[in-house]
Amino acid sequence: MSTVNIELFPLGRSLEVAPGTGLQAALYHLGVEFPCGGRGRCRGCRVKVLAGQLPVTDEDARMLGEERVAEGWRLACRHRAEAALQLEVAQWDASILSDDTPFQFVPAEGLGIAIDLGTTTVVGQLLDRQTGHVLGVQTGLNQQSRHGADIMSRIEFALAAENQGVLTTVIRQQLGQMVADLLGECGRSPAEVRLVTIAGNTAMHHLFGGLDVTPLAFDPFEPVNDGWLQLTSAELGWFDGQPVPVHFLPCLGGFVGSDILAGILATGMHEREEISVLVDLGTNGEMVIGNRERMLCASTAAGPAFEGARISSGMRAASGAISGVTVVDGQFQCQVIGGVSPRGVCGSGLVDAVAAGLDLGRILPSGRLPAGPNLPICSAVSLTQGDIRELQLAKGAIAAGLRLLADAWGTGLDQVARVYLAGAFGNYINRQSARRIGLLPWGAEKVIPAGNTSLLGAKLALFQMAQGEGEYQTLRARVRHVPLNEEARFHEVYAEQMTFPSV
Ligand code: FES
Fold first, then answer.
1. pLDDT, tens digit, for every residue of 387-400?
2. Are 15 and 84 in contact (CB under 8 A)?
């Protein structure tokens, strides 16, 4: 029997169904909710067609409006899969962190646009450089996601069939539309913009700049060019030909990108006498340790467990996700996003559930489940032995990286005075649970959720580069990259850090 393939983003899941299968039946099995029962009355099931065709229905037009329909949005409950489809599921949209941190600046002329280009999400802000006011914000999913959910699958796609140009075109067009929308919504003109700054990881830096990503796929994973990318809006096709400089901030080396360089500047850790740590907990864990005298950075492959991927009941932090777990009267008690029935667990819920399982003795420090292959955390959601192993891999990689980086700096982790957690996951993770599972070996009082430091750093660059060289150049020269993959003790320390603390 012939089948058609449906790919769902941003999680990158796919399924095969018989032609003509209703999307409600097909998607429900992957955890998509249909709040009004599929009657076309609530918009809760909306999906965006990324590839393929779903002809517009009357309900689509009435419930979503002309503009959204033109963008490709449809009500999944009113459609059938007649041929292959790629769909973005609105319910799975990642929570996208913007930034409203006050900051100091020297006024400059005109408008500036700062962009945080993440693997999953993209955020842009339009600023008045005289006042520092944020005039507009735009967010979205990185449209490269349809070609791979994480960095490595994106790089594999780029290499597989010489597709790199596709990814470069997609992201340049998306950001071009974003900057146009920012100006349009604020009624401002391209002629007023003096500078655009972008911060992002090394893969995004290369893909945006059109640089060869092949070296990022093979040991020693060193970038082909990790410096400033100085482009102009004219060569990118932005701003109707207005010549505006577009600067992608430089990487720090390996898989440590300008998002981390921006984070250093945003937290001010490079100006303090005390030792600080900055960590971005993601598929690729990036970290920095140091003070005003010297700084070291590294990256470590943590895998996707923190994003709820490769977990049997894993999902993004969306409606129905268990986002927190506590122990009440010797039992798990779950907090569920949206107050609906639980249908999966997101990264913060997974960390909490394992911490609670350790406290209850239902998970052993080795990671083994003593009472059988599954650990129910509520009636609908269980963790498997494989899920626990995925989390051990992720937390072991981060914990080992931190330990080796501290050793390389010549200090102990107990000497660290502050720990900044960058990014969305760092914002939501329970700090006590992170300590309980041995992910972060510090008390909650030392650990500071720092928000979107990448975007804040890109904003600071809008003002500093107006003054000349800017602090970025000198700061970058002070941060040394430590390639952990060349560290002889890495595997030994990694294996040690895979176990959970016994108390
Ligand atoms: S489930 Fe309500 S509109 Fe589709």
1. 999 999 999 999 99
2. no
44 touches ligand 1 (CB under 6 Å): yes
Residue 188 vs residues 127, 175, 197: alpha-carbon distances, Å: 11, 17, 18
Q: State residue 423's pLDDT score.
A: 82
Cβ-contact 56, 74 below 8 angstroms: yes
With a CB cutoff of 8 Å and minimum separation 6, the contacts of 238 are: 175, 176, 179, 180, 190, 244, 246
Atom of ligand 1 nearest to the CA of 44: 2
Query: Can you tell me the distance from the alpha carbon of 156 to that of 148, in angstroms, rounded to the nearest whole number?
Result: 8
Distance of CA 123 to the CA centre of its chain: 11
Cα–Cα dist 308/166, whole Å: 28
Cβ 131 vs Cβ 71: under 8 Å: no
Candidates 415, 470, 99; CA nearest to 261 is: 470
Task: Tell me if 484 CB under 6 Å of ligand 1.
Answer: no
Q: What is the pLDDT of residue 1?
A: 67
Q: Is 35 in the pocket of ligand 1 (CB under 6 A)?
A: yes
Residue 146 confidence (pLDDT): 75
Pocket test for ligand 1, best of 27, 41, 319 (most atoms within 8 A of CB): 41
406-445 residue pLDDT tens:
999 999 999 999 999 998 788 889 999 999 999 999 999 9
> What domains does the chain contain, in order, with CATH numbers?
4-92 (3.10.20.30), 111-267 (3.30.420.480)
- Answer yes or no: is the C-beta of 77 below 6 A from any ligand 1 atom: yes
Helices (H), 225-346: 233-236, 258-267
Least confident among 169-183, 240-254, 388-402: 240-254
* Count of all residues that appear for the chain in the document: 503
H helices within 195-346, ranges in order? 202-209, 233-236, 258-267
Decide if pLDDT at 484 tops 60: yes
| Tens-place pLDDT, residues 150-165 | 788 889 899 987 788 9
List of residues 6+ apart from 13 with CB closer than 8 A: 7, 30
Alpha helices in 237-359 (DSSP H): 258-267, 347-359
State in Å: Cα 27 to ligand 1 middle.
Answer: 12
Chain segment 15-43, per-residue pLDDT in tens? 899 999 999 988 877 767 777 778 888 88
CA distance 9 to 83: 17
Question: How far, in Å, is the centroid of ligand 1 from the Cα of 32?
Answer: 11
Joined together, the tokens standing for residue 117 give 């280009």
Verify whether ligand 1 is closer than 6 Å to residue 426 (CB atom): no
Q: Identify the bridge partners of residue 198 per DSSP, sorted by sequence position.
A: 115, 248
In this prediction the pTM is 0.83
Separation of CA 311 and ligand 1 centre (Å): 27
Cα–Cα distance for residue pair 267/461, rounded to 1 Å: 14
Q: How far is the CA of 305 from the centre of ligand 1 (A)?
A: 30
